[in-house]
Amino acid sequence: EADIYQTPRYLVIGTGKKITLECSQTMGHDKMYWYQQDPGMELHLIHYSYGVNSTEKGDLSSESTVSRIRTEHFPLTLESARPSHTSQYLCASSDAGVGQVGVLTFGAGSRLTVL
Amino acid sequence: GDSVTQMEGPVTLSEEAFLTINCTYTATGYPSLFWYVQYPGEGLQLLLKATKADDKGSNKGFEATYRKETTSFHLEKGSVQVSDSAVYFCALSDPGQGAQKLVFGQGTRLTINP
């Protein structure tokens, strides 16, 4: 049973379109993350949030933006998609509890193709 | 900065073979170490973890021991099954670098043939 949900699972769009990838979790986790996974499988952190109204850029520069207005919701937006944005985007969350450091729960991913 | 290096893939084995996937790390502090697995079409799942030197993490027949002297966390399984076919990621979380941010290795694709 999935506790973190990503929609859409697959999206094919044209260049210049605005898109939002949705991510919701039902576990009450404070920390949430977006990773970009390239075709070679490598994972790159692009955004993270430690709580409501907190967002930070990750290690890989990205033209996308995120917001965290509610604990359970962490959407990612691309204002103008380009073919270079074609990738799989993985959302994750984690508990701040002792012993849970580094333990992330991942969604199934959103695979984006920009033509 | 912190980094994780995994053995080059892909790895192809026959069912019931012994598996080792090598992982070494570089960290400034005393990291926790993890193995995550990604089955086809899914997100990543935590497979096992170890939080201090000489700890052994284990799950579903997989094991890995935190070796501080060799900065390694190699994944092993004595007898693999077709259902173990997946991509395996080694990762670390370094308290000195923002404990809740994981640094991943490049992933190793494992295929098990019947």
List the helices and strands and how they pair.
The complex is a heterodimer of chains A (115) and B (114).
Chain A: E1 4-7, E2 10-13, E3 19-25, E4 31-37, E5 43-51, E6 54-57, E7 65-66, E8 76-78, E9 87-94, E10 104-106, E11 110-114
Parallel strand pairs in A: 2-11
Antiparallel strand pairs in A: 1-3, 3-8, 4-5, 4-9, 5-6, 7-8, 9-10, 9-11
Chain B: E1 3-6, E2 11-14, E3 19-21, E4 23-26, E5 32-38, E6 44-50, E7 56-59, E8 62-65, E9 75-77, E10 86-93, E11 102-104, E12 108-113
Parallel strand pairs in B: 2-12
Antiparallel strand pairs in B: 1-4, 3-9, 5-6, 5-10, 7-8, 8-9, 10-11, 10-12
Question: Describe it for me?
Answer:
- The complex is a heterodimer of chains A (115) and B (114).
- Chain A has no helices and 11 strands.
- Chain A starts with a strand and ends with a strand.
- In chain A, strands 2, 4, 5, 6, 9, 10 and 11 form a 7-stranded mixed sheet that branches. In chain A, strands 1-3-8-7 form a 4-stranded antiparallel sheet, with no helix packed on it.
- Helix content of chain A is 0%, strand content 49%.
- Chain A has strands at 4-7, 10-13, 19-25, 31-37, 43-51, 54-57, 65-66, 76-78, 87-94, 104-106, 110-114.
- The model of chain A has no long low-confidence stretch (mean pLDDT 91).
- With 115 residues, chain A is mainly β.
- In chain A, a hairpin with a 5-residue loop joins β4 and β5.
- Chain B has 114 residues and is mainly β.
- In chain B, the strands form 3 sheets. In chain B, strands 2, 5, 6, 10, 11 and 12 form a 6-stranded mixed sheet that branches. Chain B has a 4-stranded antiparallel sheet with strand order 3-9-8-7, with no helix packed on it.
- The radius of gyration of chain B is 14 Å and the shape is globular.
- The termini of chain B are far apart.
- In chain B, 39% of the residues are buried.
- At the A-B interface, β5 and β9 of A face β5, β6 and β10 of B.
